Amino acid sequence: MTDAAxxxxxxxxxxxxxxxxxxxxxxxxxxxxxxxxxxxxxxxGRSGYFASRSAPLGPVSAEVVTATFYNFSPDLVRSSIDGVxxxxxxxxxxxxxxxxxxxILDTTVDEAMTDADLAEALDIVESRVAALSxxxxxxxxxxxxxxxxxxxxxxAGNGLLRLWQLVTILREWRGDAHIGLxxxxxxxxxxxxxxxxxxxxxxxxIRSTRAWSEADWSRAVERLTGRGxxxxxxxxxxxxxxxxxxxxxxxxxxxxxxxxxDDQELHRFADxxxxxxxxxxxxxxxxxxxxxxxxxxxxxxx
Length: 302
What we know:
Helices cover 62% and strands 1% of the residues.
């Protein structure tokens, strides 16, 4: 992999692919199938999210999960992770996550994506992942390390599931770099959540899921106000610009993952996933993200 983003690749294209790959990955976080599979191995409630996403890292502590996820309250992470690995192994939780993803993909996306499109998408993403460097990207590296488990009889041959895991690697690869940029700004975990809350179109969603205390939140607002990010009316023009710089730099780093591809090729990959996103949207898997199933298309979920 080269040391600079390919000049022929538009950052707008990179951002579009990020949005689509995030949607293709993220349905598992809101799916009742996931909660069912986690409960089946003894992991319940919010522990399911933290244990399943951190499972590739091994039986790590709450401190490690807080560090790699970054913007969640340490108290929330600790209450969700402490004790989990005493009664279930990370590989068991990883398998539960894949069972949930496979159930959804096989019933919701299978008929929406042709075999030819799946094969083409897999060829692209396999080559991208094979070329990645994982230096400084722990969550991406961990997700790459569990690919071997997909050779087990339960998962072998499931192309949609393999595509999902490969896309997950790319998503976490970008996220690891984004965290590095937040650290460099610096924006700590609570501060970046406050900024996102002010930029988000549906206030309260991010704040409630990250579970920072009122005291932590107030101190973060005070710090950000002192540094020019916020004022009495909310996020300032300076704050918006500084946040935009972080996002732009994240896209520049993310472009490295697509090195050698041009805009047309990258748009093609995004287009290959669009039918899957449409099927998942129709299945109402993104309602929690503010994208419910269209009213004229009843949900396919049971």
